[in-house]
Queue: 4 jobs
Job 1
Amino acid sequence: MLINRCYYPETRKAIDHYSYALNEEIGRGFSSKVYRGRDENTQMTVAVKVIDMKMVKQSIHATLLKNEINALKSFNSKNILKLHDVFQTQNNTYIITEYCDSGDLSGVIKKRGRIDEPEVLRIMNEIITGLLEINQKGYIHRDIKPANILIEKQTPKIADFGFAVQINSMEVKQQGRHYNVGTPLYMSPQALRQQGHTEKGDVWAMGVMFFEMLFGQTPFTAQTEQGLLTAILHHHLVIPSHPSISDASKDFIRRCLCIDENQRMRVKDMATHPIYSQYCPPIYKPVPLQTQQSSNVPTPATRTPIINKDRSQSQGIRDFQSRPKCQTQIHNDSKVSKRCPSEMYHLPHPPTTVIEPPTSDPMRSKSQKQITESRKTITQENQLEKRSFKKNNTVLQERSINVQTQVSQNTTPVQSPMKFKSNNDILFAQINYCRFLYKFSQQIINSRQLTLSNGLKEKLLFLMAKNIAMKISKLHTIIDKENSKDNTFQLEDFDIYRKAESFQKFSQAIAEYNENYKRYFEKTYQMIVNKSLPQDKKFEALFDKDLSEFESFYFITQSYLRQALQELKNEFPTQSSDLDAFLPEEYNFSYFVSQQLSNYLLICHCTLQNMNDYKKFSKMLKIDQMVDQKQNRCTYRQVEELRGKIQELISK
């Protein structure tokens, strides 16, 4: 494991009466580092979060962190993470909080599977106590979930107030119109519909979390946000009979998970419910909502998820031990095949991974050496591929037909190959979706010509890698023997189709792609962890390893694609009097990237339009042609045409 201890002497830095040692880094985020510190007055261990103000670019991040600090400053409960102090210098902001070293509730559930009811009631009562304090001070949390409940010596503490706002603030009314805040599985139907957030959204999340602790699973699950909303609205809430729980707990779940907000409990109602009152004396005393003044708290400008080595301190924690100890290079997925006489689907080989030796300096940026080495590796592989595929003469054609099928001697002959054309097209489109994103990602990685502001290039690389992993994971479900009935893509005559030769070829390719694309996603994830990107709340909401496909992923990804296209569009030279003249060569790569980003934006748009209609999606786009698109010289006329296309896509 690579840690900073070998790079820094035992030198302590002082901030007022707190201190920390540079060799006791316990985590880091996009624009911050977190150290195990000490209060020199009391010798108490604290967490010191150091935010680099040079990485702060956008005012929205200042607002979000100001909300978080002001909220924490307002609370006084043993069940809420305690803020000790905030300091600000010209270069840094320092946030001092209590130090928690016992993980979070999510880790407890994962480790134990489920928690027995008596212990769940104890935990729930303490969380309710914390939530009552939040409500009394006029705030809503908006991201209650097990990962945001820290455990310190068996005491649960509500943490991560990055989405917290005052109940009647304009921010509550305005946020959610462009993208949801929170975590979908714990969001109320009103939040999923983007109808705004109230304290009853926190109550819904409490009900989901209570259910999850008792049964080891959430009450509603789905692959997409729309599917989750459909499940909530149209599927009756089922409380499992095993393990058996008390009637009071069942009633609490039902009253928290009322679809109608008017019928759902309020926060103060939880304090009078039997699961609370029979374990704790009533403590809730209604007080008028009041705005907490925090003018004496300096306003730092970014909230940063913590990367943690040995404890859970906030949402989005990244374990230092999981960082790669050596560099990995991903080969270019540039194999092109031709159509053979039998017109069968021939799928390209998935990308491979080459592990390079560790660098001598583990703390320096790896990107430069990765680019240099990968160019050598990719060039060698491409030369082999060209020779190999000249002999193979096979191609991935959009919507190829006449697929041969395999007939077992002991089974009824499978139906006509034309019957499976639609199924083949569906799988073909999804695989090409992954290939397009992977190949485009490699083209960006292997070029030094693309520059975008505020870490936008790295964010797009991560979003593409995650999108690839999401798609290949979903494809893998149809070949998983343990889920043989899972017809995720609504393939026709699925049981019969599984016996076809074309499906066997798809299965083999999907299995190999799944392994290699997941490895690429892990490498990209670690690359982002090791970088110091400007703080970005939207990106932070997607920066995790959750591969569930939700609509919010595509909404947020589209916003970054539009931003990148706008930047690139502004870099093109002004119109020439000779529209058929070629642009200077230095603009060719920007033109090519703009084309491919436009294609990806179009793919995202079509995905949102046909979230559960894979057949229609396969007919809308020619993704195989996008995969094979190459960088060529372009004219001023082509640039003007692309400008118009970009403007149309941006305005959608």
Job 2
Amino acid sequence: MKPRKTMVVMSAAVVAVALGVVGLQVAAQAAEAEVAPKELLKQASTLYDAHNYDGALKRLQQIKRDDLGFFEKGSYDSLLDRTQKAVTGKAADEKAFADGKEALSQKRFGTAVEKLTQAANSTYLDADKSGPGKALLRLAQDGHAEALAQAKTLLAQAAADAKAGKAADARKKIKDVEAMDVRLGRSEQQALADANRAIAAAEAKPAAPVAAKPAPKPAAEPAAKPAPEKPKPKAPAGPTASDLYAAAKKTYKAGDYDAAKADLAKVDRAKLGFFEKWGYDALSRDINRAVSGRAAGEKALADGQAALAKKQYTAAMENLSQAASSAYLSPDKSAAAKAAYQTAKDEHGRAVAGAKDLMAKAKVALQDGKAAEARTMVNQVKAMDVDLGWWASRDLKGLDSRVTSVEAALVASAAKPAAKPAAKPAAEPAAKPAAEPTQVVAAVGEKPEPKPAAKPAAKPAAKPAAKPAAKPAAKPAAKPAPEPKFDPVALARQANRARAEDEMKLGDDALARHEYQKAKIHFSQALNLWPESAKAKQGLDQAMKLLAEREEPLGDVVRDVRAL
């Protein structure tokens, strides 16, 4: 009885435990069902950030979208889309990691690099796979580099075998390259295509002679005679189009542009490969540009050196700067151009300083009334081939204008006294004093010398014409000397007033056109030239008043100032 009771008790206990587990599961499901949609959305976002995309997707699938608010629906849609992409992306990246690892172990470096690159750049993989993926990628890249170098060697050997007529050996090497799991670059692909063409040509050459060879007929005759006629395949013993293109490219890089142009002219473009044709066209343009650029640079260097010898520093600096910056000149000529440019720059600076010194001396000479000296100095500055800059050039123009004004005033003042003495001798014929020389001498001989010498000018008007005729002949000879004398300061003042009147006219015209800023400048210049002018003061005041009433745009002001 006891064993049976024990079994009954144990069975009851098992049933109770089973019921308890079921109850816990039901309670858990009920609890999950009672989780609010907002909380599920928050949990899904947290799981997504932790790269647990399956858990996040499970939470999102439990949410009823209609239970969410307006903004929460937007977050839900975005997170659901990203999670679904992450689930599929993570699966693909994990597969890429496994495939890349397997390919690396089999030394299939091209596939390994491709797959491990995908895994290393994945944003979905966990750190335990992303980190090892990057390390394996570096190993795959190193192995791929070695395999690629080996492939290049085989391609070069295949090309050499094809040229030597060993088509079978070349074909075997090509197959070895194709069997290698490597990613060929553009140059390697071009080399592979060239090798295949060379192999095809080498394989085609023996085929033609075999077809044309009547085997039985020449057998009766000595076979040595027809054999020498068939080494026609040796025609490509000279450089091929690719060889000539490579030689032209090498010569161009060495800086011998004329030789590169001659080498490139020998290339038959039609016999080049696709990429070689593209390179041929680019090289042709570069060579033509280099030839013309070198010619222009050499001409600029020669012109600059010639201008420097003639002390034409502005032209020298312009040409030598062009030569020094040329990328096509030879190193020795480029260095010579740079040295000559520095020399021209230094000499130009000294010439500018000398020109400004001459201008200062010309101003002093003009103030002292030495217009001729000022003109000489101004002409010397104008003859210099230098760039004085905007301000100094404007100053030179003003100085030249002032010297011209003073010279014109001097000419006018010299012409006025010269016209007056010319009228007096014309009114009284010079024959009268010559007709009565004896009478005058006799009269002077009879009278004592002190009296007639003391009062000749006061009483000769009422006396006979003999005495006044003798004296005017002595006076005109003594007086013409002091008449050409002039006051240079007064002449300069007169010239300044003339210029001031011109400025005032320009100021009046500007006022009439409502250009008040320009009028202000003209009246200011007039007042500087003629400080006592009431008209200049009045015009300046009017221009200032009108300027205050109407503000002119800054651009118009700058334009007016530059125009002046």
Job 3
Amino acid sequence: MSWSKEHIDAVARLGADADYRAFERIGLDGMNAARVLDVGCFDGFNTVLKFAPYMGLSSIVGIDPFQDAIDDAKDATADTRFSWECTSLQDYVSDDSFDVVYFSHVLQHLDDKKAAIQKAYALLKPGGSIVIKTVDDSAKLSHPDDADVMRRLFRLYEAHVLPRVAHTAHTDRNFGAKCPALLRDAGFVHIALDIVHANTVGMSVDQRRGLFERMTYFRRAKPQGLEQDISQEMDELLVQWESMFEDEGYLFDTPTFVITARKPDGGHDDDVLKSEQAIGTLPIELGGGISAQPMHESHLGQVMAIETASFPDPWSPLAYVSELRYNHDARYEVIVDRAGAVLGYVGVWVRGDESYICQIAVAQAARRQGLGRLLVIRAAQMSRVRGAHVLRLTVRESNADAIAFYRALGFRSIGTLESYYANPLENGLEMAMEL
């Protein structure tokens, strides 16, 4: 019994966006002369799809315990950066360490998942990253499903099929939620989880059928010796589940867990930590039960509440999302209390030797407590570390309190921008401070 190459390659294409987001989290696009290890590379299609676009990679090694898969992988690309080896992770030996170790729908199948994560840790350079893409059937949603068709099928498959097939004998179909704790126990830091969903909402009938096929193609294959009554019950459940996908009122959702983590950077990790805190990519404690943290999309509800209460012409949520995702010149931070409530935020654009405070605000209830000053200090720190020598901002000419506040911090007036602000129309006063 074997899994379909066509199905596996199709899943690789359909789910590639989740991998690329994970690669963005670990900074893969900015790496130079970096080495990647893909564990369980299969026919090489997924390996090439995911890593060929990153020209800063000097070596991508794919390993797989099946020789047929490695033979196919050798024909996957003419790119000389890629190499392939028939071996298990347990038996793999490398003279050089790696910047990234990657598991795509592989780790859940290994017999000793803890040992595999520890081996990945050993193969990584200090500061290197692990990327794990995996499943968790316990998080799948089937509604309405009063007869519990999906769960009954899953239970039969796990009890009677998985243990009888060599490459699934140790498979844990509910692995996703367990993975972050295993990474922590192995010594990894900066663990991040992205749960990516595929569901039937808005799908055409053909698309729903395609999703059903992706969920069941491997569950249709049965090992020799499977009891007739079990086989028949599985067939009946598959027919029932397929008919549910035909109903536009049926909702099915399947999550993919994508976890990234970093190996500590040895004796330099404290310096790296301090540097990343200064740059604005890691949290930093400010005392008094508050901390500055990188702004994430999960903060936007609280940010927008402050934004709309602070400005007559607020930025839109889409503007913030675009900044956070795509503006590599920008850094945004929030100040939060112990409970995670956002008390204020600041954003800077750093271009060359100048930096610009593009947005800054403090929640109404948290004003006159020194948070505005802390936000400006953080803006100056993030700017200085990234090479800026001047910090600039623009304020409404009529905002006398804000102008006095910035002058007290060392800003000086450098010019006027005619009709800079709308709603209401007003000039903007440009101010700057040497860093």
Job 4
Amino acid sequence: MATVVLGSVLLYSVYLPETAPKQITLAVLPFSEQEEITPFGVGFAASLRDSIALSRDVAVVDSLSTNLVMLDKEQASGMAHVLALTHFVDGAIRVNSESAASIEYRVVNVSHPNWKEVTTREIQLSDEELKPWQAIRDEMTVAIRGALYDNSLLRTETKAYNEQAYVAYLETLGSFLIELVEKPASDTKYAAFDAFNRTLYEATGIAPEPQQELWDVQSKFSEDLNVSQYAQSLWHLAGEYPNSSAVAALAQLAFDLNYLELAEHAWLHAARVNPQSALVALSVADVRRVLDKPDGLEQALRIATLRARSDLVDYFIIASEKLDDGSIPLVSEASHPETFKLLENAFELSKTEGIAIDLLIHEDQLAERRIVQIEPTRLWQRPPKFMRVDDPRWLRAQRYLGQISPATRLEIGSGTLAIANDAEAVQQLFAPRRSD
């Protein structure tokens, strides 16, 4: 009997990685230092998140969403539900003496009512055996992925950073996240965080993978306008790094190229990784509007409302509720004073929707100074959110967009991203690959 039990235990331990739940969603919570939330602790947790996020087997919530919830006392207690988590990692950095310190961390399973610690570990730090913080992060990454039954190909950053520069990077990153969380208007925060990461990279040469590669791909497309190569590059990046911003970039391109099923699938995955982004939820709503999925549209709008009651979200809620066809109503200061005010305030929330705001506020004129702020990789094959393709304002805007949008200089065919027509390939794009 004992032999049978022992054999069962051994068999269970051998096959556990292959039979573990395949839908794991993880958040790395801010680390504390001497029981306090500090810029270094927040920055280190964000960098640890980016390292774990190189996995294909685990969905890892973005650092901004995590900090928006965890640094809000009202939401922090319900963070597992708010962020839709199955697991989280938290930790503490403690100074034990003048020459020694330690970092303790744990992985907690919150997928059941009774939370359970999966693993708890402590790394001793001493002056006698100094270990670079990047090496500590990578050691923790391997252990955490192992605790999550992640036996896919282990990828870590190949570039080793100067220790002093890396510590300064963590403190700067953490300071910005803390400052950003305290600001109002959640919709602006994601754009601000993206811009900050770009500026920080230019100053330090440090950026989470594959962000630098994505920037290079987008820059190359802006120069050569090879939409087929751009689409294939985004497909590859989003598939290899499903926790990265390449997923949202692919979603937007797929929507512009009329690969609507791929666009919806990618936006839904982006919503899982960016659970506090109202703009991602609005993007899900818009693609469902085009696909004529009224129930899904209503659900996505409701989620956007829960994520951020901002002027931009409020406006699109109004637009969807007041018009049967779901298109944006004509707005002027005289006819719709309250909505007009929403739009004036909403413009700064999203440069991508800048043209929508201009079209609504300036019925007969377009403010070119605002339109040119639109990112150069946006094709603008489709109008802004919730606007009909035959809306006269959209038709009028196209001649202005022709000056800045690559779409008018491209021959875009139906086979630009042929693999997107393969329903199975689309469904498997972000799926865990535990057999790697």
